[in-house]
Design goal:
- This protein has helices at 2-28, 32-48, 75-82, 99-105, 119-131, 160-167, 193-196, 207-217, 238-258, 261-268, and strands at residues 50-55, 64-68, 86-90, 109-111, 135-139, 174-186, 189-190, 220-226, 230-232, 271-273.
- The chain has 279 residues and is of the alpha/beta class.
- It has a single domain, classed as Glycerol-3-phosphate (1)-acyltransferase.
- Strands 1, 2, 3, 4, 5, 6, 7, 8, 9 and 10 form a ten-stranded mixed β-sheet that branches.
- A hairpin with a 2-residue loop joins strand 6 and strand 7.
- Helix 1 packs antiparallel against helix 2 and helix 2 (32-48) crosses helix 3.
- The longest helix has 27 residues, at 2-28.
- The two termini are 33 Å apart.
């Protein structure tokens, strides 16, 4: 428990230092507003002991819509530590103490998936983030799960591609890239289905006890796999985009869960980051 307290106090201090800078970046529309969340989550991952194994190549295109699976709250710092991104989150997150405020400072789009009449407004907001040149991460399953399976990707928010192309006269296409997150080791032990649920945060599991459990583990290994980026124009069908991304994420997740990160890194040249990757 001393470890949890020390990490908590360290993060509190770092948050107090970086939040004023982030506020200034947001108010003045500075590039700083993208860099600070990236730096902050690099620190979070380093303190927890997250090792990121990257497979494949991230797209450098701007803007890019990243369609990913969702396993845990840990997904957010892992992804944000790898590159500056904007997230799409469920609307309940906006009301969370501290975390909701930090999410707003990262320009997160909040979406109420239960209120279908609000989908259009949320999709337009995602499109506006794309038009600003952001990489936008959409957890396309619509919820988190046990980390072993992939749920069907929802296509409605993918309609942001068409909104962005329709609103941006200078854009002829939007790049969409699938991304898979697969947690492979927990506290130095190779994860099976049961152990993987200690990292997965889903269902009715309370956030604070789960967060403490992960921090106490001292080390978490996650494989982030990047699929082939594809450029889509206005003729693209959002259901086709979602289905193709789902199949790619399903394949990548299955491969990552079968592989041993240490072996795959040595044999294939995959990148391992004891600390999160630089931008």
């Amino acid at each position: 428990m001393i470890r949890v307290i020390c990490i908590g106090l360290t993060l509190a201090a770092i948050t107090l230092i970086l939040v004023p800078l982030q506020l200034a970046g947001v108010l003045l529309n500075l590039r700083l507003r993208r860099r600070i969340p990236h730096l902050y989550h690099r620190i979070v991952c380093a303190l927890i002991g997250v090792r990121v194994h990257e497979v494949g190549i991230r797209s450098n295109a701007a803007p890019t819509l990243i369609l990913a699976n969702h396993v845990s709250w840990l997904d957010v710092p892992v992804i944000s530590a790898l590159l500056p991104v904007v997230f799409v989150a469920k609307h309940e997150v906006a009301r969370w103490p501290v975390l909701g405020w930090l999410a707003r400072l990262q320009n997160t789009v909040f979406i109420n998936r239960q209120a279908r009449h609000q989908t259009g407004a949320a999709t337009r907001e995602i499109a506006s983030r794309l038009l600003d040149g952001n990489a936008v991460v959409l957890f396309a399953e619509g919820t988190s799960n046990d980390g072993t399976r992939i749920l069907p990707f929802r296509s409605s928010p993918v309609g942001a591609v068409h909104h962005a192309l329709g609103a941006g006269a200078h854009l002829s296409h939007i790049t969409v890239q699938p991304m898979s997150l697969a947690y492979s080791e927990f506290s130095g032990v190779r994860m099976g289905r049961r152990l993987r649920q200690r990292v997965a945060w889903y269902g009715d599991v309370e956030l604070l006890p789960h967060l403490v459990q992960v921090v106490l583990a001292g080390a978490v290994d996650v494989t982030v796999s990047w699929g082939e980026p594809k450029a889509y124009d206005l003729t693209a069908d959002r259901k086709v985009i979602a289905r193709e991304a789902e199949l790619a994420v399903r394949r990548m997740t299955s491969a990552a869960l079968r592989a041993d990160p240490a072996v795959s890194n040595a044999s294939t040249g995959h990148t391992t980051h004891p600390l999160p990757a630089k931008a």
